[in-house]
Amino acid sequence: MNDQLRRIAQRIREELKELAQVTERVQEGWRRAQRSQDDYYLDGVALNLHSFYAGIERVFEMIAETVDGSVPQGANWHQLLVEQMAREIPDIRPAVLTDEAVDILQEYRGFRHLIRNVYAFKFDPLKVEKLVEGISMVFDKAREELLAFAHFLEQKSQVNED
Question: Is the pTM higher than 0.85?
Answer without folding.
Answer: yes
